[in-house]
Amino acid sequence: MVILQGDVFWFDPGMPHGSAPGFRRPHVVVQNDAFNSSRIRTIVLCSITSNLERAKAPGNVLLQKGEASLPRPSVVNVSQIVTVDRSLLKEKSGTLSRLRVREIDAGLRAVLKPRELPAVAPPTPRSHERD
């Protein structure tokens, strides 16, 4: 099966722990197609929730009912990133538009952006002499 960035699959990550996603739910492929078409057996996904309150979180992307054949309005949660073996992705729902994929990419960039570190002063020379 060909798997492309923006494809939405129903996937069950199992029982949730804390705020982690759990139970059968849609996930969107966020991994670049260069990796998707390689021999790498894993795929990087973001979970999708029907909890529309999640749309208020920075970077998350609101989806309308029917996008990628989703049965209700939903939200891509860009902070819930999971890597799975491609063999677990069996039930494809549909594919998101390029515009939506770009919005998800922007959200992922916000989540994964390295923080800016403060400038570090050069070390001061140490004296090796003893008094």
Per-chain topology:
Blueprint lengths: L6 E5 L13 E5 L3 H4 L5 E8 L11 E3 L10 E12 L5 E5 L2 H15 L19
Antiparallel strand pairs: 1-2, 1-6, 2-3, 3-5, 4-5
Number of helices: 2
Q: Count of DSSP E strands?
A: 6
Q: What characterizes the major β-sheet?
A: 6 strands, antiparallel
Helix/strand class: alpha+beta
> What is the CATH first-level class name?
Mainly Beta
Strands of the biggest beta sheet: in what spatial order? 4-5-3-2-1-6
Number of domains: 1
Residue windows where pLDDT falls under 50 for at least 5 positions: none
Oligomer: single chain
Amino-to-carboxy terminus distance: 74 Å
* Percentage of residues in helical conformation: 10-25%
Q: Shape from CA axes?
A: elongated
What's the CATH topology label?
Answer: SH3 type barrels
Order of helices and strands: EEHEEEEH
Chain-averaged pLDDT: 91
Computed Rg: 20 Å
CATH architecture: Roll
Strand content: 25-35%
What does this 3D model show about the protein?
The chain has helices spanning 33-36, 98-112, and strands at residues 7-11, 25-29, 42-49, 61-63, 74-85, 91-95. With 131 residues, it is α+β, with helices and mostly antiparallel strands. It has a single domain, classed as Roll (SH3 type barrels), CATH 2.30.30.110. The mean pLDDT is 91.
